[in-house]
């Protein structure tokens, strides 16, 4: 854990990242297949500003959710998409869409969040039975577990001719974001902001359950809050823009390696960096084959997979 004198680099980095994020937001708003004209304000308020905000909210909330789940399972190599949370949210969406096709988006989000909560809870129950000496065993089990849930969702969707819809939920794409269709992401942003209130307790949980209990941390209550935050975040992102992999894994690892594990000082940087990464991926995806688009999740997935391999092969020096 960094000392008091070590906090300022993380604060400065968060400030610089916020400035960079603002500049990138201006660039994002200026990019589009439709040139500005008589309907400038309509295009800005209906499409480009909502798209930029949704990208920022999705990236920040996913990065913070990654920190939460890593602290809860004491493993650096997991994120919501590696714990069954995302796949469980998709399964919930499939079931509610089949049962109540006309259900409003808020109802679908509640069902998806409930399914993600159940899926993440089952994953945590399994992790507690795994040996702790092998850090790669937890993400491996998570990938298999998530794959099983995803296969069930795909099988049910195939029977009801919903594969294209499931594909959209599994691939984060910002091109369909419009005003009135992204506002649920503010719930994910709120969950990320509330996480900061328990940042110190999350830091202590990362040291181990025994030490956390000895320091008076309410593990049961904090586990419930953490599960709720991860589940809500997974659900609103999947419902609104689709799944975006590796953000919750790569961003916390980068910040931890550079600035340590004191979440009271590093959590804002995690959120800012997560938003910057996803917004940057969305901008690159729009420019590479302009005026066509490559989904942001594809760009993040390629870069994130390479960084994940680097994390596995290089030891962490900032302990």
Helix and strand arrangement:
Blueprint: H1 7-30, H2 40-73, H3 85-99, H4 105-127, H5 137-159, H6 163-170, H7 185-195, H8 199-205, H9 209-214, H10 219-240, H11 247-259, H12 263-288, H13 296-313
Folded structure, characterized:
This protein is mainly alpha-helical. 72% of the residues lie in helices and 0% in strands. The protein contains 13 helices and no strands. It has helices at residues 7-30, 40-73, 85-99, 105-127, 137-159, 163-170, 185-195, 199-205, 209-214, 219-240, 247-259, 263-288, 296-313. Mean pLDDT is 85; it is low at 1-5.
**What gap, in angstroms, lies between the N and C termini?**
8 Å
Strand content: under 5%
Largest sheet: none
Uncertain parts: 1-5
Order of helices and strands: HHHHHHHHHHHHH
Structural class: mainly alpha
Radius of gyration: 19 Å
Q: What is the total tally of β strands?
A: 0
Kindly list the characteristics that best describe this protein.
globular; single chain; mainly alpha; disordered N terminus; 319 residues; 13 helices
Short description:
This protein is mainly α.
């Amino acid at each position: 854990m960094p000392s008091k004198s070590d906090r300022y680099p993380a604060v400065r980095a968060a400030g610089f990242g916020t400035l960079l994020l603002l500049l990138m937001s201006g660039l994002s708003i200026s990019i589009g297949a439709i040139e500005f004209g008589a309907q400038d304000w309509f295009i800005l308020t209906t499409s480009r500003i909502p798209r930029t905000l949704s990208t920022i909210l999705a990236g920040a909330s996913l990065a913070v959710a990654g920190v939460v789940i890593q602290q809860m399972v004491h493993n650096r190599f997991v994120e919501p998409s590696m714990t069954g949370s995302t796949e469980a949210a998709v399964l919930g969406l499939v079931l509610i869409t089949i049962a109540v096709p006309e259900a409003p988006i808020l109802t679908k989000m509640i069902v998806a969040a409930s399914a993600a909560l159940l899926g993440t809870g089952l994953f945590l129950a399994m992790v507690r039975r795994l040996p702790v000496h092998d850090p790669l065993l937890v993400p491996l089990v998570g990938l298999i577990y998530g794959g099983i849930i995803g296969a069930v969702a795909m099988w049910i969707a195939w029977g009801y001719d919903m594969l294209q819809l499931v594909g959209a939920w599994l691939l984060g794409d910002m091109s369909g974001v419009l005003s009135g269709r992204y506002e649920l992401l503010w719930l994910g942003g709120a969950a990320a902001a509330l996480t900061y209130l328990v940042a110190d307790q999350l830091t202590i949980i990362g040291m181990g359950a025994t030490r956390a209990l000895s320091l008076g941390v309410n593990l049961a209550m904090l586990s419930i809050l953490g599960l709720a935050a991860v589940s809500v975040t997974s659900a609103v992102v999947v419902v609104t823009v689709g799944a975006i992999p590796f953000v919750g894994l790569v961003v916390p690892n980068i910040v931890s390696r550079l600035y340590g594990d004191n979440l009271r000082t590093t959590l804002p940087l995690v959120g800012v960096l997560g938003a910057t990464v996803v917004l940057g991926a969305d901008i690159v995806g729009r420019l590479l084959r302009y005026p066509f688009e490559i989904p942001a999740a594809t760009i993040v997935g390629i870069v994130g997979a390479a960084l994940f391999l680097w994390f596995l092969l290089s030891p962490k020096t900032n302990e």
